Amino acid sequence: MKLASTLPVGQNYKIYADNYFTCVPLVVKLLDRGIHYVGTARQVRLPNCNLEEEKSLKKKGRGSFDIRVETNHNICAVKWYDRRVVTLVSSFAGPHTVQNIQRWDKANKTYVEVERPTIVATYNKYMGGVDLLDSFTAIYKFPMKSRRWYVYIFWHTIILAVINAWLLYKRDCRALKMELEILNRR
């Protein structure tokens, strides 16, 4: 893999990415240039990284996690179980310190304390909004067909604009303490 020669060196940049891009060779190449990385990862892109199986993490309960560190480059891989398993890879954030957070338990209909590694909090801080936008766009896809590729791009742009407008509206309503009057997405 070739990185562009225009990438800065030693500027302490941090890249946050989804599982489509995350692989160990990319993290190593970026780290060699002084660029840090954190992102979700697919298990198949982590060769020789034997993290615990999903079943064993589920048996331990919500908030359980497993850690592996590649010692040559100090790259950390964490598999964390909340409602489902998520695997994260980072060259600067690790699992320690663990934070206790409140999560909704559907079965008991109460909030429960769940442990969350720092790497998950770091990822959520910067990528949580992107993942939320992706999930909303998946809900509101237009069921249309076209032979012209640019029609899909046009409607996707419209959907993104509408969802972003609603998220801004919701944020402003909360800032003005108008929570009872917030319109739903439809």
Automatic annotation (TrEMBL):
Transmembrane parts of this sequence: 149-169
Keyword Membrane set for record: yes
PiggyBac transposable element-derived protein domain residues: 1-166
Top-level taxon of origin: Eukaryota
A Pfam entry, by short name: DDE_Tnp_1_7
InterPro entries: PGBD
Alphabetical UniProt keywords: Membrane, Transmembrane, Transmembrane helix
Membrane keyword on record: yes
PANTHER family xref list: DDE_TNP_1_7 DOMAIN-CONTAINING PROTEIN, PIGGYBAC TRANSPOSABLE ELEMENT-DERIVED PROTEIN 3-LIKE
Name under which the protein is recorded: PiggyBac transposable element-derived protein domain-containing protein
Organism annotation: Pogonophryne albipinna
